[in-house]
Structure formats: C-alpha cells, structure tokens
Design brief:
Length: 363
C-alpha cells in the first residue's frame, strides 16, 4: 500500500490510542485532534504543567480517559497501558525545557531516558500494539552549528542535559527496535524529531512565544536572551500531523516506516529569534517592543535546522502553514482566550482550518 502524507480521519476512527504527555501543550492539541477523528484515547501524564493550561482551558479531558501518573514509575505506567489495550502508542511525556534541565539534570534523565525505557518495556508486554511513535526533538543531534539541516542518520549528542537526554532516548528507541521489535508479529516502532513548536495555548516558562505574550500583556518590553539564535520554528499542528501520518505508515507499511523521522518547517521558516519577536510585537500592536537580556545565560545552540527530505519522500508529508501564518494564528488565538471565547470550540475550528479539505468529521 502506498503511503499518503495526509492525516486520514477514517483510519483513526475507532482506534485505541495510548498517549503519554496528554496534559501538556502538544499533548492537549493531539488529544483534541484524535478525539475529533473518533479515536478512543487514553492519556497518561502528570497534572497540567502550567496554570492556565490548554488541557483545562480547552476541556480536553471531556473526550478521553485521563490517567494522572509518572512515567518514571514503571509499574504504574505498565498497568495503565495494558489496561487500555491500545493498538497505537504515542509517547510524548517528557521534561521538555533546556533551562529546567540545568536545574534538575537527574529528573530530566530519569524522565526522558528511563521514561522511554519504561514505555517500550510496557509495549513489549502489550500484545495488541501494532504501532508506536516515540517523540524526541531536533536538539537530539550533536550540534556542530552547521548552516544546513541535520539528517536522521547524523550523530546523536546534545550539549545540555535536556538535549543529551533526548539523544539518549533516540538511542534507546533504536536499540529496542532492533533488539525486540523485529518481525511481522511485533509492534512497529519509530521515533519523531520536531523543531521548535509554537502555537496557541502554550504557557510554559522560558519559552519564546509565551515569554513574548506575558510581556506584551503587561505592557513591558520583551527580554530576549539570544536574538540571533536560529531555530526551525513550526506551528504545533505541523509535527502532530507528522506523528499521525507516521503512525498510519507504521500500521500499513512497517518495513518502510519503522525508523527515525524529522518533521520540521520549510527552510525559509528557520528564522532568528529577533525576527520572531519583531513580528509578534507588530501583530500585537499597542507599542509592544523588546530589549536584550544582558544577564549571564546557560549555553544554547546558535544555529539549528532540520532536513525533512526523508519525510517528504518516504511519507509524502509536508509543512502546511508558513511561519507568518503560524504567528498570526497565535495572536488571534490568545486574543480569543482573553476575550473569554470557548477554547474547546475554538481549538476544533483551528484544527479544521489547518487540515482544510482533508479534515472529515468522524461519525
């Protein structure tokens, strides 16, 4: 069967999906998307990491089974996964912040590395799982500050504990795939590496877009640590569409799909932080501006891009929204939230705008 780059609602209708990290920013968006397509979703995660949170503001819990638990607790995770009896597993639970990893390196490694081991061990015992996607990050690569994008076969590395732990998670996933998941009767295992994800509903600390929104709401200049740092920015729905497409491919053609995959933006959307800040301030209006934070900062990479040629050719996946469109959507989303709009309905409308004609309401 040929692999299509489209997310197929008919495929997901009725599928049993186990999703870790469902209370986070990306996990909440993915939970809503899966619910809208008629999947039976069981989520496993810690309580929402921020107040406010997208999970609560969009009433994500209403359409799924939500289990509050810690992936560092192997027995609890295993019981939850086996009880859910999933056909598809998507592993997104993580300690996701570079700066937080400097404060708690032990917790970061325990969550991002051993949490992945615990998840894959549970999948080994779950007879009904046919596809599993382990989500890591673009920062898993050994960053050499190259001007070109990293490909999936580049060396794993990572300067800081977060990035390094995600490189380790990639190595764990590769070892488990080769050691335990070969053969037609086994689950097909893949890993997915996404760029810097942005979108409405992100209130995390020490992340660019939430920091910008917090500052402009207060009428204060945005403090920017590294204005010339270049990242592969993408709207949150872009990589999520990649994960869903990858799971479909794992189901239909595991020999091709059981591998590592990059999901990033077009080359022209790898922009410096200053470019993002200036356009967000312009879109917000009200004389919003920025200034450089001159305090001493921990190390962060200056230049990072992803090569998505493999996903284009092998999965027929492609980015849909430009960076400009993504930034505009964030400002509109945030203004709607501030105005008291129903964010559950608004998020569903956002999903339809992103998916366009491909999106079909589940019966």
């Amino acid at each position: 069967m040929s692999i299509s780059g489209d997310v197929d609602p008919a495929f997901w209708a009725g599928k049993r999906v186990f999703l870790t990290g469902h209370t986070g920013f990306k996990g909440s968006w993915l939970s809503l998307w899966l619910q809208k397509m008629g999947a039976h979703v069981t989520g496993f995660a810690l309580t929402p990491p921020t107040t406010p949170s997208l999970f609560e503001e969009a009433r994500v819990v209403g359409g799924m089974t939500s289990i509050i638990g810690d992936i560092r607790d192997r027995e609890v995770l295993e019981r939850a996964l086996l009880a859910a009896d999933p056909e598809i597993v998507i592993h997104m639970a993580a300690q996701p912040l570079v700066r937080a990893s400097y404060d708690d390196p032990v917790g970061t490694y325990a969550t991002n590395v051993m949490g992945t081991v615990h998840l894959l061990e549970a999948v080994r015992k779950a007879c009904g799982v046919r596809a599993a996607c382990v989500v890591t990050t673009d920062k898993c690569y050994e960053n050499r500050e190259w001007a070109w994008g990293y490909r999936e076969d580049e060396a794993m590395g990572g300067y800081d504990p977060y990035s390094n732990s995600k490189g380790c998670a990639e190595l764990v996933t590769s070892a488990y795939r080769r050691s335990f998941f070969g053969g037609a009767s086994k689950a097909a295992i893949a890993s997915a590496r996404a760029g810097n994800v942005i979108g409405g509903g992100d209130w995390a600390a020490d992340r660019l877009i939430p920091d910008i929104l917090r500052a402009v709401e207060k009428g204060e200049p945005v403090l920017i640590r590294n204005p010339l740092a270049i990242r592969p920015w993408q709207h949150v729905l872009e990589p999520l569409s990649g994960y869903l497409t990858l799971c479909q491919a794992l189901w239909h053609d595991p020999a091709v799909a059981a591998d590592a995959w990059n999901f990033g933006p077009r080359d022209e959307d790898a922009q410096p932080v200053q470019w993002i800040v200036e356009r967000m301030c312009e879109a917000w209006g009200d004389s919003a501006g920025w200034t450089r934070d001159e305090s001493v900062q921990p190390h962060e990479a200056h230049y990072l891009k992803l090569d998505i040629s493999k996903a284009r050719a092998g999965l027929h996946w492609r980015p849909r929204w430009s960076l400009g469109t993504a930034l505009e959507s964030i400002v509109v989303w945030h203004r709607a939230w501030r105005a008291g709009d129903d964010m559950h309905d608004y998020c569903h409308s956002e999903l339809e705008r992103f998916a366009g004609a491909r999106f079909v309401h589940a019966a």
